[in-house]
Amino acid sequence: MLEISGLKACYEDVVAIHHLDLTIEKGEIVCLLGPSGCGKSTLLRVVAGLEKAAAGVVSWDDEDLARVRVHSRGFGLMFQDYALFPHRTVEANIAFGLEMHRRPKPEIAARVSEVMAIVGLEGYGDRTIGQLSGGQQQRVALARAIAPSPKLLMFDEPLGALDRNMRERLVIELHDILTTLGTTALYVTHDQEEAFALADRVVLMRDGRIEQMGSPAELWARPRTRFAAEFLGFRNIIDVQTAKECGWPVPEGETDAVVYRPDGFEESETGAFKGVVVSRTYRGDHFVVRISPTDPAPDLLIHVRWQPVPELGQELRLTIDAESVIPVVGNAE
Amino acid sequence: MTTATVGKHDRHRLVEKLKTVNWKGIAGGLAVAAIPLAFISIFFLYPVGSIVWRGLAPDGTIDIGPIKRVVTDPDLRQIAWFTLWQAAVSTVATLLIAMPGAYVLSHYKFRGRSLIRAAVTIPLILPTVVVGVAFLSLAGPGGAMGVNLKGTIWIILIAHMFYNYAVVVRTVGGLWGHLDPRLEEAARALGANRFQAFRRVTLPLLRPAIGAAASIVFLFSFTSFGVILILGGARRVTLEVEIYRQTAELLNLPVAAALAVTQLLGVFLILTLYSRYQNKRSVTLNLRPSSEVEKRPVHLGQKLVLAANLLLMAGLLFVPLAVLVKRSLTTEQGLGFGYYTRLSDPGASSVLAVAPTEALKNSLTFALIAALIALFVGGLAASIVGYKKSRTTQWFDALLMLPLGTSAVTVGFGFLIALDSGILDLRSKTIIIPLAHALVALPFVIRVMVPIIQSIDNNLRESAAVLGASPIRVWREIDLPIVAKAGLVGAGFAAAVSLGEFGATAFIVRPNITTLPVAIFRLLSRPGAVNFGMAMAMSVVLMVVTGLVMLGVEHFRAGDVGTF
Hints:
heterodimer, A: 333 residues, alpha+beta, Rossmann fold, CATH 2.40.50.140, 6-stranded mixed beta sheet, 31% strand, elongated, B: 564 residues, MetI-like fold, disordered C terminus
């Protein structure tokens, strides 16, 4: 079990992490999600032992790691650009960690072919790194990281360099491999879809602090802050003041803004939302309709799954179900 | 807040800051830097400083007499003027003739291209003496072309173009081959014709590379020594040649020193103008892989352009060397190895105190020693420059590059007048020759090694560490294999430089010790077909030996990592 408590870390004179607490259970896949500069990579590097903490404790199974050097931690780390050794073949790259742990040669050979099968690289052992495609390099990096069976496997934006299609395919494969192996994993990304597809728990970070954490479903159902809602791609985030002036539903309790999920709208003669359709785009199983309410309200986006689809210029009157109204705290930046 | 608390706060911050300073790292860096610094101080700054002192104060007090003579003496003024204009003309001519070559070799895909690309760089590594002899055999007295151009500007110009063609092809072509072709296409789509697109888009983008190439060519031509000494005759004399003549023939050290100071000023001026220009001109370019730029020549026009350039390369680069080889095999008795067999005969020539084979042995020994010295000093320097980029290491780097901008003649002359007393009395010791060679080769070794060391991605080291490699293992597994290769390449370059070094050696060599280039020059200075024949044969031997060394270097470079 990885325990991080009261962690503070600096990166080139700037405080990158302020007093952070986080625990990762064995076998859990945790994704650190956040925009660039939020401290997620620094956190990863501190856990790996590549950066020093300015304050706080990082421990594994109650053993403080402060005095344990990088190479003795027994963790694995996969870099964004893979950092494959250009002077070694695919096989020799994968064998590297095992060699460092002084495993006997036959065992190394067996383990190398085993992990090459896991990541689907059979027959590529003799290739040099320069002969591989981006996706293949990514697999070699994964194989190299899992070969020594690390206690904790870490990923620093491992799919960032790949195109969208490849990324979507590899996320699924990666998820299957990680759950099959039962590895404890810490995964850094700025892509929320990647995080949601992989993680048991998502840790959303902002400016060196944890903004919110929970299972993907929890985060998706209930972003607590305006930043979380914006970062997760929610639309229709309206200041409470504006919402009240427009007569739109506002939940009880202390909130700074309200999110109206585009999915939750339906047509109603008595609805609180009124506006004219100003644009309409087709999205496969639904239409995204933008309506322009009366001032001072901003435009709203509505997902329309009903027939007939509203025409441009048509006046709409809508209501929203209570679950699709989410209160959030925090102001716009 | 009172001032006292501010002070306390600042002090606290200072203490915190000092804690984060990596004292161990700084101490280690200084220890490693000490040897290159000592080397460059003793064997470069001190000798060059001595020249400047001698030039400005020949008798211990400042006396601008000799300097004034350079400006007022019509002969010396004539020499300075000739040095300048022949360098300018050489630069312009080389650019004009080599730009199309740079385009063709960076844009057209054709069979045998990589071979030709390698072949055009051969002149770059050829000893100047070999080039001089090759052009003498082509267009000297009794030359293959039937006209004697010795002592004319034409033969000097062509020899400089021969030498520097590859500089332009490599420097300009290196950038041109990676320029985004869509930029020119965009210009064409916006209504520019082919010429306008080139002039308004491509040319400005290439300007840094053209500026760099032009400065190098100008500097090479400005400080050209061997070529002009051999081809210029008595009529065409540059500052370099005159420094040598004043020292070796007239024993007029004050005037030689004054000339050397003038020459140093000229070099300094060129380098300053160049760096100013580069700073002003830097644009961020979106470089593309060469595969997006290259195409096969398909139209007749493209094929003609390609053919014309290949023909030009053959004529300029290949013919002189071919003629040299052919004439070295043509004795008075017909084709044969007559001149070569004479090389092992100690009594073959009264000009040489020792058998020419002895010179070969010397050259190889010196090359080995010079390579080891340059590798040791340069390796230490490169590991500092390549490891971290900071203002301090940049200054350090610039300091070690100084010998590159200084002519070999200046180095040799400086050795001659400075290393003459105390423990530095090296003039009578043979080691002075490989030391001079190592100094001349040092910048090359550093420039070859630094990019390779820098190409080691720090992620690789971190990656190895995470996988369980201790710091020593990391160095052994990641740094060593890559640095060792860089070292071999650097040492090879140093050996090649040493083999062909003539300018510095000419000053410090003693009559009973010769290197190949010096022996060739001594043979040339005597009349007679046999002497000239032996000079040609030795030039071929020198060319082959240098070629073999560079071939070895290329072999190790082939598997380079991190090249674009």
